[in-house]
Specification:
The complex is a heterodimer of chains A (about 80) and B (about 575). By secondary structure, chain A is α+β, with helices and mostly antiparallel strands. Chain A has helices at about 25-30, 65-70; strands spanning about 1-5, 15-20, 40-45, 55, 60-65, 70-75. Chain B is of the alpha/beta class and about 575 residues long. Chain B has a seven-stranded mixed sheet, with helices on both faces. Classes of the chains: A alpha+beta (about 80), B alpha/beta (about 575).
């Protein structure tokens, strides 16, 4: 297991959210869309040149800006 | 029961259920003091009439955006007023995430009924939910529905008076844990693989395939909008004005004696003894023709196509693809909405800035849209004017506007204080829109546009008439003349076009036609006309959306930048 952030994941790769490093507002936003420690998360795609990251949590796809995605830490199989 | 609130996460089919429950007479309005829009309608009749409110979608009762704040305020107000109920609409394919909001609402002092919408889709992807068990746990009625086909709506209506307060007790800190327990009790998921549709859907967000697909889709969208808009103008609105309204106005003109101040205000100037709806400038001629026959058809076409893109789920994907580009001008991907709208008509473009959360973003988006995005009617006229020169004429015009958009966007992003938030949005699965709800939405938006825009256009025409009668416009024309001739290199007659451009940009471009301008002059005039000021309808909406101080700032940016760019073009071409 290795700890990386969402932007470092490859498209199609899955992992488990370990932590989110941000203020209360950001935590509340992420949590409202089901992204919180302990959940399974799959990266659908990233965009070129530090564009937003798209992830799948449960049956929801979420687009997350690059800066925010960098602060979501995920444990993945190496 | 007096009031029903429809509440739920965004993209759960709330507005489809709203449109199923309500009849005619639905209105869209702004929540007081905000730019958040919501719809209101009614069901039942006579004594039993109940108000139904489509509350803006929210993910939780701890608001993180203006729309969510409005949702929470509406709920609190309904609790205070008593005699109201909440229908909590849950996306059955996302039970866990949706229960978060429902559980928060269950703690509130208001009767509730739960709808599990998208029931068919949940079954289709292998999710089964034990409804009876869920009802027992939460203590309120749970009704599965497929809003698009109408399945379950009748049962929902029949059981509305069974709405009651929930009995589910839990500690707030343990909410997600509790939700996990409920899910374990009631939900069973048979794992299914990606469908072909989902794989195709994913292609639209991968950068290498998504961008070419986006270009094709946008091209088709504009063709369709032009087709619908021009069709409505050519076959419906213009014939109505020319054949029905024109004779009435001519009769009125004769009644008023064909001249005088009242005649000039109501009818305007007769052009070669006839009413010219584009040039006469009377309140009842140009004042009505512009918003109804020239702008409205494009509004109808645009809202139809945009609502389709919205409801099908493509818009958020386009926003993701373009997010990076938008960041360079201090906006995020969702700002593509006002820009796209502005290309059809700047009026809905100005209204479209509402999708943005902060004042800073709305100011940048509105100013950029007004300054560098010509509307469809104007684009058509520019093509007519310099199309014959081909790329040699068109490229400098649209290339300049493109550079202007980036340059002033980057500049505003640097100069204006504050940060712009990053994109963070749910990307709903592709769905075929439900046309009943779609048409209702389009209809509401159009009604709203007519109510907001027409009085302002009339006021604008009225003011221009007064200024004209008092010779104030002449005065400004004479002051501006040296600037226009010396710095921009345009003939004196172009002053007239710039003044008319305040009312109708396309018409102003058309007025350049008989002046016999050189290609260089045509390019400069087209660019300056696009940039220098929004048309009166856009101006009125921008004034409302931005407030007077920001509008003055935006106007100064527009006037100064248009003359700078015009002068620069005059030097380098």
């Amino acid at each position: 297991m290795a700890h990386i952030d969402l932007t470092q994941m490859g498209a199609g790769q899955s992992g488990k959210v370990i932590s989110m490093q941000g203020g209360r507002g950001m935590m509340a936003k992420l949590e409202a869309l089901g992204i919180r420690p302990g959940v399974e998360i799959t990266k659908v795609s990233g965009q070129i040149m530090r564009g937003p990251v798209i992830v799948r949590v449960g049956n929801t796809q979420v687009a997350i800006g690059f800066g925010m995605a960098r602060r979501v830490i995920v444990a993945v199989e190496v | 029961m007096k009031k029903i609130l429809l509440m739920g996460n965004p993209n759960v089919g709330k507005s489809v259920i709203f449109s199923r429950l309500t009849g005619v007479g639905v209105i869209a309005s702004n929540y007081p003091g905000t730019t958040v829009e919501f719809s209101k309608g009614s069901m039942g009749s006579g004594e039993q009439k109940v108000v139904v409110i489509d509350v803006p979608g929210t993910y939780s009762l701890n608001p993180t955006s203006p729309a969510e704040k409005v949702a929470v305020e509406m709920l609190d107000k309904a609790i205070e007023e008593k005699d109201s109920i909440v229908i909590s609409i849950i996306d059955a394919t996302n039970l866990e995430r949706n229960l978060n909001l429902t559980l928060q609402m269950l703690k509130k002092d208001i009767p509730m009924i739960i709808v599990l919408n998208l029931w068919d889709e949940a079954k289709h992807i292998g999710i089964s939910i034990d409804i009876e068990k869920l009802e027992r746990i939460l203590g309120v009625a749970v009704i599965p529905t497929v809003a698009i086909t109408g399945e379950g709506i009748k049962e929902l209506v029949n059981r509305l008076d069974k709405a009651k307060k929930g009995q589910y007790q839990y500690e707030d800190k343990e909410r997600w844990h509790e939700i996990g327990n409920i899910i374990a009790e009631v939900q069973l998921i048979k794992h299914k693989h990606h469908t072909i549709g989902e794989r195709l859907g994913d292609l639209t967000v991968h950068p290498w395939t998504g961008i070419p697909i986006a270009i094709v889709i946008l091209f088709l969208v504009f063709q369709l909008i032009r087709f619908i808009g021009e069709g409505l103008i050519g076959y419906v609105f213009e014939p109505i004005f020319e054949n029905l309204w024109s004779p009435i106005m001519m009769a009125l003109s004769q009644l008023l004696g064909g001249q005088g101040i009242i005649h000039n205000i109501l009818i305007g100037q007769l052009i070669e003894g006839e009413i010219d709806f584009g040039q006469s400038f009377g309140l009842l001629t140009t004042g009505l023709f512009v918003p109804i026959a020239a702008v409205l058809p494009y509004i109808v076409a645009f809202y139809l196509v945009l609502s389709f893109l919205e409801d099908s789920g493509y818009l958020p994907r386009l926003a993701v693809l373009l997010d990076k580009i938008m960041h360079s001008v201090g906006l995020h991907g969702m700002a593509i909405v006002p820009m796209l709208l502005g290309l059809g008509c700047n009026v809905p473009g100005a209204l479209g800035t509402r999708v943005l959360e902060t004042k800073r973003e709305r100011f940048i988006a509105a100013t950029l849209m007004a300054i560098a995005i010509p509307c469809m009617a104007q684009i058509a006229m520019i093509f007519g004017l310099i199309g014959k020169y081909g790329a040699r004429g068109l490229f400098p015009v649209f290339g300049t506007l493109f550079v202007v958009w980036f340059f002033f966007g980057i500049l505003m992003n640097l100069v204006i204080k504050g940060e712009s938030p990053e994109i963070f949005t749910e990307i709903p699965p592709y769905r075929l829109p439900y046309f009943g709800a779609l048409l209702k939405k389009v209809f509401m938006r159009i009604k709203w546009f007519l109510k907001e825009a027409i009085p302002f256009v009339l006021l604008g025409v009225f003011i221009v008439n007064i200024l004209y009668a008092l010779r104030i416009i002449d005065f400004f024309g004479r002051i501006a003349a040296p600037v226009i001739t010396n710095i921009l290199g345009l003939p004196l007659e172009a002053v007239g076009a710039l003044i008319i451009g305040f009312l109708r940009k396309d018409l102003a471009v058309g007025m350049l036609l008989p002046l016999g301008l050189s290609l260089k002059q045509l390019i400069i005039a087209s660019v300056v006309l696009t940039m220098y000021f929004p048309c009166v309808a856009t101006f009125a909406i921008l004034l409302k959306e931005l407030g007077i101080i920001d509008m003055i700032k935006a106007a100064i940016i527009m006037i100064v930048s248009s003359f700078l760019v015009g002068a620069l073009l005059n030097l380098i071409i």
